Amino acid sequence: MIVLKTPLSRFENLPDYPFDAHYLDVEAGLTMHYLDEGPRDGQVILMLHGEPSWSYLYRFMIPVCVKAGYRVIAPDLIGFGKSDKPTAISDYTYNKHLTWLLTLIDALEIRTSTLVCQDWGGLLGLRLAGSYADLFSRIVVGNSALPTGQHKMPSIFRVWRVFARFSPWFPIARIVEAGCFKKFDASLKRAYNAPFPSAKYKAGARAFPRLVPIKSDTYDAQQNQLAWSNLCQWQRPFLTCFSNGDPIMRGMDRLMQKHIPGCLNQNHRIIKGGHFLQEDNGPEFAVAINQFISDNPI
Fold this sequence. Notes:
Layout: E1 3-4, E2 22-27, E3 30-37, E4 44-48, H1 62-67, E5 71-75, E6 85-86, H2 94-107, E7 113-118, H3 120-131, E8 136-142, H4 155-166, H5 172-178, H6 186-193, H7 203-211, H8 219-231, E9 238-243, H9 252-259, E10 269-271, H10 277-295
Parallel strand pairs: 4-5, 4-7, 7-8, 8-9, 9-10
Antiparallel strand pairs: 1-6, 2-3, 3-5
Helix pairs in contact: 2-3, 3-8, 4-7, 5-6
């Protein structure tokens, strides 16, 4: 496996990203970057990003949650942000991403945390929650789901899957901007492009769409089916906080509210924004998380 490291100079002077960097080897020769903000003894909020973003996506939310007394851990998934980047698409699998995250969770002794997940952060986080019952005490899902291959994917996703695999042009910042209501200025585009100096660094971003289970008889689809079955018995607090402008994930919040017992009597939210609601309305999202934790003490 050939692994690249993005030069740290690419991340200098990014707007609204003053956080200290932390690193962990999740396997030999492979390092994950993560943020760790707030009091060491505070309740932990684990924030998982998706594709093709990185922990920068949570920069407006972290200070709001820290101010409320929580400890926020926000990793960059392998292939993203300041984390290492294997160069072959085949280097990335669903199980490898799960293993890398579990290594981080175990190393930091994260237990009874509140999971906050969006996009592929949800595919990973919900799979972990459904597979390891005691890993999280609460779950907050924003614009994500746990695909089991049992339902037809929307046409816009099928187009995205083909584009990610075959398009010679994969403009990261423009992809994130297309999933937001806001328009990006030059500094914001630089921030989202920062992890990817060239096409060689983008294998992880290109890999994710092809890893989404779309056929019910595949291994990952069956593992997600089992995880979903367990989530349908999840009694712990579960909050959906979706946006009003996401054509891919629209309706997934109602599905979770219908089937997951922990959703009962929670103050589920619809926030104004696109797919990347953290970028469009991060502070409001963070306030909803703080209130959710306060309303559901451990």
